[in-house]
Design brief:
single chain; about 210 residues; mainly beta; Jelly Rolls; 2 domains; 4-stranded antiparallel beta sheet; 1 helix
């Protein structure tokens, strides 16, 4: 009887411990993603160097400020993580804004990046007058809404400037409102839009 009792006790202990290890029936809710392990966050001014980043696991979805570190500018490429298809890419001079979403892969070269909330384009002031350098500006943040004159730099080898006005920083075909490859131009931009300029002086006229 003592042997049977011990055997019964062992079986009961095994069953009870086994129940604790079995998964529950029905749907299992996955644990939430720990966004604290992804970077950069909007609470600091951390720069991420050139490399490849998967959105949603290595960096957060959102808008980023890319700053060129190469002599002739930087480059970015955005791919669909599932298909490998290129969504957007481009070379840029001083800086560019890029918005990324989950399940995308962002690669940057000859540049670095940080959360766009942490940065704004630097504007030079000489004798109280603002001088805007080449790059991408967010209207209402980096520059005010209004009308600007774009004049080709004398140092430009091609003798022409290039500009784009965009409604967002996703860099999709439908993001572009207008663009031009001209010697000079007068443009008007509104809050929330983006202005990208290369090989040009930018002057606010009202």
């Amino acid at each position: 009887m003592r042997i049977k009792f011990i055997a019964l006790l062992l079986i009961l202990t095994f069953l009870l411990s086994g129940c604790q290890l079995e998964p529950t029936t029905g749907d299992i809710t996955p644990a939430p993603t720990n966004t604290e392990t992804m970077k950069p966050t909007s609470s600091n001014d951390e720069w991420l160097e050139a490399g490849t980043y998967t959105v949603g696991t290595e960096i957060l979805a959102g808008e980023y400020f890319l700053e060129a570190t190469g002599v002739f500018g930087g480059y970015f490429e955005l791919k669909d993580a599932n298909t490998g298809k290129i969504i957007a890419n481009g070379s840029f001079r001083a800086n560019v804004y890029v918005t990324v979403s989950n399940s995308q892969i962002l690669t940057i070269s000859l540049s670095r990046m940080t959360d766009a909330k942490n940065r704004k384009v630097e504007v030079e002031y000489i004798d109280g007058e603002a001088y805007y350098l080449e790059g991408m500006y967010k209207v209402g943040k980096d520059i005010k809404a209004g009308t600007y004159e774009l004049i080709c730099l004398e140092s430009s080898d091609m003798g022409r400037l290039y500009y784009e006005i965009l409604k967002d920083s996703k860099h999709l075909p439908q993001s572009k409102i207008t663009s031009g490859h001209v010697k000079e131009a007068t443009i008007t931009v509104y809050d929330g839009q983006y202005l990208y300029v290369s090989n040009a002086d930018i002057k606010f006229v009202g």
